[in-house]
Input
Amino acid sequence: MQHSPQGIVSFREDGAMAMSVAKRFHVEPTLARERRYPAGELLIQHHGVSPRHVLVVGNVTGDLSSLIRLIALAEGLRQTGASSVVLLAPWIAYGRQDRIGEQGESPIGLVVGRMLAQSYDHIATLDAHSPAFVKSFRGKLKNVLSSSDPVREWRVDIVVAPDVGATLRAKQMARALGVPMTVMTKVRTGIRTVTRLPDAEDDSFVGKRVLLVDDLVDSGGTLLAAARILRERGASFVGAIVTHAIDAQAIRMKTRNEISDMRIVMDHASGALEQEALGRLTDALL
Output
């Protein structure tokens, strides 16, 4: 976005986030209205004539109606005068559906990326899942990764990705902290999924301070299994940084005996987002 936003629009559930962004630009945010016809059809309406440069604040959730309404809002803003419409969306769901795993599957994440790219001039999100997902936005996506600054005080010796999917952000974090990294693997044995470390000396983690890095944690099971293995291998401290947590409170409770400290950037259950991350998302669009 080459110009500061002259208008900021969101839906009601993202109003607090939009308000935080609006304070930076001294712009009064407005709320778009969402209504339904008796047959269940969606109707989106915003307020009057649009300024030339508009910032939309909102997430794409598992309910794809959130995607449709963001697309409809962008179209409505352009029809009423906006020449530039950008999207700040910390969470864009379906990023893990970025390839065809079995014959007949549809990579919905790539469809989501292409649809948003057609509607918005630029988009900023927090920790997109994969290079393939990022590529689907056709150069319009600014992918903001988790900052290493808040965890420097933990003084970790090594960064660990709890599974292969977390490799990208673990590499970035290890590089920023100036420490080595390793990647754990998940192996399915029957009905169970076992997390394993790569071949290494049995004492390679003894007395070490370890940081687990993951982009999205659903139940916390993989994170817990990884922490237990690291503890068994002698780690003196196991911290974790999670970009997206489906339910931060439940994950903290589940892992409290194995993980010494945990930083969660965005909690989907409460909608809480670190102000530091929100600031970097905003900067990415300017």
The first strand starts at residue 7 and ends at 10.
